[in-house]
Amino acid sequence: MLLGGWSAGHLARGWAEAGEAVERAHSLSPLALRVLKTIALLGLVRDAHLVASPAILEWALSDASGATPDLTPALDELLERHLIAWSRARGSYRLWEGGDVDVEALLETARAAQSGDVALQAALELCPPPRLLARRHSFLTGTLRGLEAQACGPQELPALLRDTAGLGVFFCLAPDESGAQSALQAAQNYAQPNGDCARERNPARNGA
User: Fold this and answer.
1) In whole angstroms, how far apart are CA 89 and each of 15, 34, 92, 112, 180?
2) What residue ranges do the domains of the chain occupy?
3) How far is CA 178 from CA 89, 92, 173, 184, 185, in A?
4) What is the pTM of this model?
5) What's the CATH fold of domain 2-107?
6) Which residues in 64-74 are b (16+ Cβ under 10 Å) and which e?
7) pLDDT for 65-95, tens place per residue?
8) Which helix (H) or strand (E) holds 86?
């Protein structure tokens, strides 16, 4: 059976989900309850041009004079209580479903669990520094000598410089200007006669 192009089963299921969401909405503010009902109704329409986006919600909930309420507190209230969910792909809100996963919250939890510079750790795992050949040393002495390049952060650099015997190349990734200055100071304090240090700035970042 079809009703206006919708299947009766789909419409009934949508009404049931909307009714359940409203029943769970205990002690909501009046505006949050209106927003919830509006999102539920727009979800039933299933029109790509009429979704529960912030702009459409403001328009739908404006008063007779055209004044639009501030929906941010109401939307935050509904999100915190898991009554609605934000769809980044559609740019709109919809009713919360039992299987919904808060991807942003999971990402923040994963980032917080990481220790140290996550970008540096990922770079080392995906692209480990290659073993290099000291060409000038080989040219002057006639002896081939290899050396390992090591990537590190500003905190690890002093210990690496102190513990390294012989030739070495260090790539220090500083996340900000303070880290870059700390790394430069550590390299200058090393003060080996054949030592050298250079700094390369990345315009896309504040560090070097």
Assistant:
1) 24, 24, 8, 25, 38
2) 2-107, 115-190
3) 38, 41, 12, 10, 11
4) 0.45
5) Arc Repressor Mutant, subunit A (1.10.10)
6) eeeeeeebeeb
7) 888 889 999 999 999 888 888 888 888 998 8
8) strand 84-87
